[in-house]
Amino acid sequence: MTVRRVVVVGAGIAPAMAATALRRAFARGGVEVEWIETQGKASPGHTLAALPQLQAFHRLLGLSEADVLRAGAGSFTLARHFVGFSPGRDWWHSYGPIGRPFAALPFAQYWIKAHGAGFPAAFDYFGREAVAARNGRIRLADGASGAATAYGYHLDAAGYAALLRVQAVRAGVTIVPDSAPVASVEGGRISALTLSDGRRVEGDLFVDAQGSIRAALGEDALADAAVSGCDRLLTGSAPALRPMPLYSRVSAHGAGWSALTPLQDRTGVTVAYDSSLMSDAEAMVAAGAPLTGEPQFMPLKPFRRIQPWAGNVVAIGDAAEQVEPLGGFDLQRLQIACAHLVSLFPVDARAMPEAGIYNEELANFHARLQDFDVAQYSLNGRDEPFWQGARARPRSPELQARIDLFAARGMIIEFNQDSFAPDEWQALLIGAGLMPRSYDPQVDRVDEQAVMADLHAQLGAIQADVTAMDTHDAALARAMQA
User: Fold this and answer.
1) Do the domain assignments include residue 479?
2) Residue 222: pLDDT band with limits 50, 70, 90
3) What is residue 58's three-state secondary structure?
4) Could you tell me if 414 and 442 lie in one domain?
5) Same domain, residue pair 134 and 274
6) Which residues, including other chains, have CB under 8 Å from residue 422's CB and lie 6 or more apart?
7) Are residues 35 and 51 in the same domain?
8) Directed axis angle between helix 54-61 and helix 13-26, to 10°?
9) pLDDT tens for residues 234-276?
């Protein structure tokens, strides 16, 4: 028996994204998608950072870039700038490659050798996107003047959720509002949901973005997804920045961190902190910008569900995990979940062996994203008790192996479920102050004068390329007219 009816439960971005993706992927096969929309909406100050990978997912959902930017009061982003995690250090998580290979060897190996010999140019100076972000420049499409930059988005969560809801309707998703659907369990599976008016909604596959439907099958073990001691979040708004930066800025403070995310009409503010060390009033001061309106405060209790897919129910979004948003990976996690649900869509409604593969893949993808955040905490150089505790938190074996190899010779171990290229990991580790003790000995066989000439040529080419790019405002205006 094939899967013909999918029932999605929840409110906001996660159910809208899942419902639309499944309907657009399988409508021609006769799959019907009904979304039971429960109560709940994004807080007024909540902002989202999207990595470049979201562009491809928008195409699957049928969303135009202009619609996304208009609905989400969106801006472009080339990087996330991290400041103060170690005294006197900052680093850029930029979204394009850093440096170019030379004599068939990776750029980073030459830079490590040159840096050890006193070469002054920082590693991120060779990242075109990082340089462009600092200079407020971007190129959206390939052209005669150069290649497009790798860019993501900053989006207002409420506006983006509203757009996704509209797109779900356009895709043929049936939306039924109901505050508390009740699941009927038969033989370890959900057979139907009973709505408040007594209507019974049957389905072959249920996608739960609120948690109660998956919980009806019995709670599975929850993994700790904490990367620090932060247990509270502030979200709010500050006045818009002019000109709009092409990056978000994340600044460490004594009990956590704060982030400023530029949008067209405002600046999103997030403060994560340990409430035993910082009060809500102090968090408002730590925001780093004057707040407009009342901020929202919420508890932060990171977790990850070990088996998000059980029986015929798949938990996604906040029903599957909640994490500290240090790296701005919320949409990346949701995109990974929805993409895997599409690729592993069950072919038999009675037996769903795809669940085991889905659970394993999602666990590995999310663990590698968590490693990226843990690395920043683990390698911080601050003296406050909060940061000392962060350094003491355990590292995964995979992260420890990455750190050990990089510290020895500047190389990055790659895993199948990585979301980031070796360049991005190298930028993080170098930015945290972890300089390798050595480098690939093959570098020594290459003529040093030729290498230095190439390094200087790269710096000049990047600067010339960035100078020829559009300003953020000009690129945004053009994109929204499309």
Assistant:
1) no
2) confident
3) helix
4) yes
5) no
6) 106, 108, 411, 412, 414
7) yes
8) 60
9) 999 999 999 999 999 999 999 999 999 999 999 999 999 999 9
